């Protein structure tokens, strides 16, 4: 299997609505950013690229099937090979890994992966209905299956099982919105307090409006390359590329219907013991077995033994503040049951940013320095690729160049993790990136 490098990435502004461009135009905006950052002419990019992967979640939002090939045509990449990936909220992460596989297998030397969603074309309630179609429409959907209800149910169980509090969840919202304040591509750049989060409109108890991500329009793209592909790009640009290596990928799955998920023993990471979880029914509805499976595989491939100590930052799928807390545990950043405490500890915050609250400990591994889905936005097909772009810039040390603000740069970052999550944990991807 060949080495795979992430060499460039770009994003559009994530926003509530983009009425100025079609989805093809928004994708082109992200790809243009990617190509410009490579330092080559667009015509050279078209000549050198072997193919692509298109990432978008729903055909419903733009009322158009085969949107991926329309973007491919608009970008000028026809007749080169491409395919569309769809996997709910994990669509972008799955597409990233499909691009990885194209390079690792030797099928391509240069692969462009682009993702998008234009969710503003429908009313919010209709968008929630479309998203809810990613639940079992014969079983879950008829009994009110909007996702905020599912996640409310899951966090209530987490609260009962582990003592998690609404204030701990609110810490996640304050952190991610304050991070996004320094991210010019983010949709919601706000300075919030715990009180702001708790006093915002209640959606599904205990989740308020500021505990939940919003629908967005946006696009993101990356270029993945083999060593030969890197050489081709460096020859075309006349410069050495500050590339990042993809050192491990992992995927996990689980049953669509939570009632079908069996209770078994917790799959242990290398630093955990069976005695840690002797009384825990797993996965229950408080945890995501697919997330633990994906993390375990990615860590094994990348040689990671203790993620909290060995990772410099994490960009994870925080569609809800509660799911960020749950994912701390799935990724092994802390033990199951300790996610709420971690959310308030300060370990997952950025150093040097005033969050307007007193934190008990210093930052160790910043989580969602970009602002995450809650604050940066969640145009579903673009989200996992947005994480890859921001992780690339972190590992290149170029946040100040792209954001015109160095507040979100993790100093000396050498290794990061990106995490995509679908449904109530039906598909999950984890990818490990390292400065080459």
Task: Describe the secondary structure blueprint for this structure.
Layout: E1 5-11, H1 23-38, H2 42-48, E2 51-55, H3 67-75, E3 82-85, H4 91-104, E4 110-118, H5 124-132, H6 147-162, H7 166-180, H8 194-199, E5 202-204, E6 207-208, E7 217-225, H9 227-237, E8 244-253, H10 289-302, H11 307-310, E9 313-315, H12 321-330, H13 339-345, H14 372-376, H15 380-396, H16 399-403, E10 415-421, E11 427-435
Parallel strand pairs: 2-3, 2-4, 9-10
Antiparallel strand pairs: 1-7, 1-8, 4-7, 5-6, 8-11, 10-11
* Helix and strand pattern: EHHEHEHEHHHHEEEHEHHEHHHHHEE
Give the fraction of residues assigned to helices. 25-40%
What is the CATH class name of the domain at 5-122 and 217-237? Alpha Beta
User: At CATH's second level, what is the architecture of the domain at 5-122 and 217-237?
Assistant: 3-Layer(aba) Sandwich
Tell me the number of strands.
Answer: 11
End-to-end separation in angstroms reads: 17 Å
The largest β sheet comes out as: 9 strands, mixed
